[in-house]
Each structure stands twice: as C-alpha cells, then as structure tokens.
Amino acid sequence: MHTFVRDIDVIIVIGTPLSLKYNRREAEKRFARVYTTVPGDLCIYCCMPNDGKFDHQPPVYVLHRFANGGLVTKKQIQEHFGQCKLVPCCTICNMGLGAYHGLSDTERRAEIVHWFLEDERFPEDRLVLALGFRLIEERLQGKRDHEIYEFPGVGRIIYTNALTGLIEGDFQGHEDFPDWLRLAQSELAVWLRAAPKRKARYFLDMANLESYELLPHARSDPRGQFE
Length: 227
Fold this sequence. Notes:
single chain, 227 residues, mainly alpha, 2 domains, 3-stranded antiparallel sheet, 3-stranded mixed sheet, 9 helices, disordered N terminus
C-alpha cells in the first residue's frame, strides 16, 4: 500500500519505489493534476472519432521514469517536458503509441503508422493492403456493404492514408481529407463501436500482433527509448 502526500507544488509517493514497480492506475492518480485536458471529438493523430478517449503527452510511464521513485515537483516536470496534456485520441492510435514519448505529433503519428505499413517480413502483406484498397473502392462503387471493415487490410489503408497525409503535410486536418477517406473513417468508426473490445482486437489484427502484452525484458523500457 502506497501513501500519497501532496501539497501545492510537490507530488511524492511514500512506499515501494515506483522506479522498481510500475502500476499504471496509481501513476495516473499520482500525476493527474499535472495534465491539462485539450477538448475535442476527433483523434489528434488520425482524426477518427475519439469516443471520449484521451492520450497522455508525455506518457504517464515517462513521468514515472523521470520521478524515479522519489519526490518531484510540478515545476520540475514542466521545465523538463513543457506543458503536459491530455489530448483526444482514438483507441487504436493510443494502442499504437503505447508508452512511446515523441517530441511532436508528427513523431507520434510516425510511431503509430509503422504498425500498419507494408511489412516486408510477410510476403503476403502487399496483397493484404492491395485487397484492402480494392474493397474500399468497391464499397464506394456500391458493390460492397459494411462487411468490408471486418478485413484488417481495409483499416490499415484508412489509417495509413490519414496518418501519412498529416505527416507529409498533404492534410492540415480532417477538413482537408478527401471525401472517400472521411466516409471510410465514419463507417469504420460505426463498425468498431458495434461490439465490445472490437477496437483493441482490430488494432492487434492490423498490426499482426498476438497480444498487447510486452515481453518481460521490455516492460521497463518499452520501444527501447530510455537506453
């Protein structure tokens, strides 16, 4: 059991050093007042509906590492990381980021999209993406129904087009997306909401992951970003 002690500037935990054991729920409570919420209904990274979900910038785990189990002030955190924000974020982009700490939204989008781009380790992956694009075309022509979104290749086409377009500056925001992309995002959002835990499962299917659990050696340093 940890005892939380707070005053106007100081956030401290008395108990087992957090540098040795990370509990996300406790860490979120510990650092909650450091973050400022940015309102919005669309994911800041891909412009999908965020459905009330938010992403921590920087990740809570990064603040946990920074505090290193000891006393840290809000001023120290802000001096090191700048303003800490809770930004609108869809479930899939949130899972794509994990505990990654990018220096900009462009870097964060690049981290997310790498899960969905063609993977040369799988020779069939190019065909998966080609079929996803073809299914979207047939949906726009009225030849297919909403069942196309069951195929992970369709979601990958939607996410890669939105994310890379924003990364490369082709789009400044959702209003710049072509009509087909806005329609596809809207329909995908409806399909994802239709079943419990479908968003999380869809991310795993798109990213070719067996689970969202980190291997033991990676838990203290996800993405190897603290080396």
